[in-house]
Design goal:
Layout (H helix, E strand, L loop, with lengths): L1 E6 L12 E8 L2 E10 L2 E7 L14 H10 L4 E10 L9 E9 L14 E2 L9 H13 L4 E9 L8 H9 L4 E3 L2 H10 L3 E11 L10 H11 L1 H11 L19 E2 L2 H4 L2
Length: 267
């Protein structure tokens, strides 16, 4: 089986003592740098959002190209990892979370992976694959790592952090965590019919939830120091994701029928 892994910059994956082949994959949205790894007979394509340009402003990440690459390589399951801020005081720094829903507050990203040659009315009732979520939960149990499930992610543009007033609004709307990169890849992968799950590390309490200001240097140091459990769950889950799919999974049918614009038929 072929899997995809979108890794945070803090995930070194040094525990994987395997050969890696670096590839540049061209897509309609641009070239993508990826590493192909062979683990227990399965191909895993590893991508870092900012690639060699890290750190890169979240809005400049070529998420459409990354997701298009997975589709071209016939990747059927993708696991994303991310670093998030907590909108709840009980979700403290260091907590590992599995995303179930999102609220999209982004406004400066491409809204869809589709272009002018057609689109699909995609069902987003369950934006993250339930089977991937179940595999993440099973992986966390097997390695005795606490995992908060049924988490709602609030996606914002960044790169600035949120105001205390925004944090209160997001929390009132049912958000649990907030981040800059997760929504676009969830939308595009769903539109492509690819099973997708997301695993997050809480690196800070959002604005207004404590007396400290938000300092990106502090957050970066925290995720480097405390990202071990995130990586452990992700790597354990990879071995469980090979069974994803089948009749019980609805992800492949989520995009719906292709809607061709009139000028396509008129050619």
């Amino acid at each position: 089986m072929t899997l995809g892994l979108i890794a945070t910059s803090s995930m070194g994956l040094d525990s994987l003592d395997i050969e890696r082949e670096t590839l540049y994959v061209p897509t309609r949205w641009g070239d993508v740098l990826t590493q192909r790894m062979r683990v227990d007979g399965d191909d895993i394509y590893l991508v870092r959002r900012g690639s060699i340009r890290h750190p890169l402003e979240p809005g400049l990440i070529n998420t459409r190209a990354i997701c298009a690459m997975f589709a071209q390589l016939d990747v059927r399951t993708v696991l994303s990892t991310c670093v998030v801020g907590s909108l709840r005081r009980d979700l403290q720094e260091g907590t590992i979370v599995s995303l179930q829903q999102f609220i999209d507050f982004t406004s400066h990203r491409p809204r869809t992976i589709f272009a002018d040659d057609g689109f699909r009315f995609t069902d987003m009732s369950e934006p993250y694959c339930p089977q991937v979520q179940a595999s993440l939960q099973k992986a966390a149990i097997e390695i005795d790592v606490d995992l908060e499930t049924a988490i709602c992610y609030v996606g914002v543009d960044g790169p600035r952090y949120e105001t205390a007033a925004e944090v209160r609004i997001y929390s009132l709307l049912g958000g649990d965590v907030v981040g800059h990169t997760g929504v676009a890849e969830a939308i595009y992968l769903r539109e492509l019919g690819i099973c997708h799950g997301a695993l997050g590390l809480v690196a800070n309490l959002a604005a207004g939830l404590n007396a400290d200001s938000i300092d990106n240097e502090v957050i970066g140091a925290f995720r480097q120091e405390h990202g071990e459990h995130l990586e452990q769950v992700a790597l354990k889950a990879i071995g469980l994701l090979t069974d994803i799919g089948g009749d019980e999974c609805q992800c492949a049918g989520a995009p719906g029928a292709l809607q061709s614009p009139p000028w396509i038929d008129a050619r």
